[in-house]
Amino acid sequence: MAAVREGRWDCQRCGSTGLFGRDKICHGCGSPRPEGVKFYMTDDAPVITDQKVVEQAKAGADWICQYCGASNPALADKCQQCEAPKGQARTQGVKEYKGAAPKDGKETPAPAAQALAAAPTSSAPWAKYAIPLGIGAFVLFCCFAMSFVFFNTSQTTGTVESFSWERTIEVEELQTVEETGWDVPSDARVIHEEEAVRSTEQTQVGERTYVCGQRDLGNGFFEDVECTEPIYESEEVYDTQYTYEVEKWVEVETERASGNNQDPYWPEIFLTDEQREGDRAETYTVHLEDESGEDYEVNVSLGRWDDFDVGDELTLEVNGFGAAELVGEK
Ligand SMILES: [Zn+2]
Ligand SMILES: [Zn+2]
């Protein structure tokens, strides 16, 4: 059951403060509690245990007598002050506060409290953005500087001095390897199996109820607003994990051929019964020198590389890091 507490109100006419929620008349000046009065709740307001009072509090908001302006409990059908019938009387508003109810009767206390909390930065509203902005600006500056060096290319003319190339072939061998997994390949031999944690699952095991706000019942009392949230428990899911042996092609060596000429060839490979040829790779490099004696290396396709001769003059695009590219070759 949501807890009920008694609120307070202040009399705007005579200035009396801290009048009890159940009081419908000001003790200071005798004037009726007005329509739209602001109820608040002090920190020390105890939970009401008297069931009769709780029932009254939960009966509904007070109604305001159209004739004399007195506040009357929801269940009364006649004004307790002047006996006028309830009729179409308006009722006191019911409000819900997310979090705590107001702690005093001052007008618009919520924005005031917020202003107080924000006080350290309120003198400079942009201050909280200053650090992220600063970091952002720095990162942006670094990107800009890097790209400036990278894209700040200059062109130069290089003379072809020499050529080099490299060709490789991987040698693969069928080997028995040990692997672990949840499934066993059809050609594998299981050598060990055990139960192991395969995943973790979140299961909802219940719900938690907590106080997430206060409801101004419109009759001088407040009731806790309760919210619920799910409670999860993580559960480990077990499965059979296999360790097995399986035959796999494994890279065992790389045969390499290279030269400082324009006559590339593939390395010779010698395969045993258990071996096969794997991936091939090839690199063709042109070595150039510009007028100032600066050396450059450019990797190009075999087709272009073949067409160049020592002494050819090529236009190079050189970036801020000194890396060169042939113009038109990407
Ligand atoms: Zn008063
Ligand atoms: Zn009345």
Mean pLDDT: 90
* Run of helices and strands: EEEHEEEHHHEEEEEHEE
State the helical fraction.
10-25%
Total E-strand runs? 13
Outline the fold blueprint.
Layout: E1 4-6, E2 8-9, E3 19-20, H1 51-58, E4 63-64, E5 71-72, E6 95-98, H2 109-117, H3 119-122, H4 127-151, E7 154-181, E8 189-216, E9 221-259, E10 275-290, E11 295-300, H5 302-307, E12 313-318, E13 324-326
Antiparallel strand pairs: 1-9, 2-3, 4-5, 6-8, 7-9, 7-10, 7-12, 8-9, 10-11, 12-13
The protein binds zinc ion (2 copies).
Summarize the entry for a quick read:
It is built from 5 helices and 13 strands. It has 330 residues and is an alpha+beta fold.
List the defining traits of the structure above.
330 residues; alpha+beta; 5 helices; 43% strand; elongated; binds zinc ion
Would you mind describing this structure in some detail?
By secondary structure, the chain is of the alpha+beta class. The chain has five helices and 13 strands. It folds into two domains: 118 residues, no CATH class; 164 residues, no CATH class. Strands 1, 6, 7, 8, 9, 10, 11, 12 and 13 form a nine-stranded antiparallel sheet that branches. A two-stranded antiparallel ribbon has the order 2-3. A two-stranded antiparallel sheet has the order 4-5. The radius of gyration is 42 Å and the shape is elongated. About 5% of the residues have low confidence.
